[in-house]
Amino acid sequence: MVTVVSRQGCHLCEVAETEVARICGELDVPWEVTDVDADPELRAEYGDQVPVILIDGQEHGYWRVEEERFRAALATR
Questions:
Q1: Per-residue model confidence as pLDDT tens digits over 17-70
Q2: Rounded distance between C-alpha atoms, residue 68 and residue 11, angstroms
Q3: CATH of the domain at 17
Q4: How far apart, in whole angstroms, are the C-alpha atoms of residue 63 and residue 43?
Q5: How far is CA 52 from CA 41, 58, in A?
Q6: pLDDT in tens, 25-35
Q7: Is the pLDDT of residue 77 over 90?
Q8: Which InterPro entries does its entry note (predicted)?
Q9: What is the rounded distance in angstroms from the CA atom of residue 14 to the CA atom of residue 63?
Q10: Whole domain around residue 54: which residue ranges?
Q11: How many domains does the chain have?
């Protein structure tokens, strides 16, 4: 499962969500969006780094989706 830790009104988050949706759709990988501001623990951990991409609950990256690296990580899970 891929999770995009996101925030309302965040342009980089919108871009990351679009890219993750496209790539996960092509690879048939489930994904979801989680609002960083809805959970105090997430906000404390990731509040300054959104968007954050998690793969199976582990941090993969933040701010931007590096497509080649992201695809490679999904292929090895």
A1: 999 999 999 999 999 999 999 999 999 999 999 999 999 999 999 999 999 999
A2: 22
A3: 3.40.30.10
A4: 15
A5: 14, 10
A6: 999 999 999 99
A7: no
A8: Glutaredoxin-like, Thioredoxin-like_sf
A9: 11
A10: 2-75
A11: 1
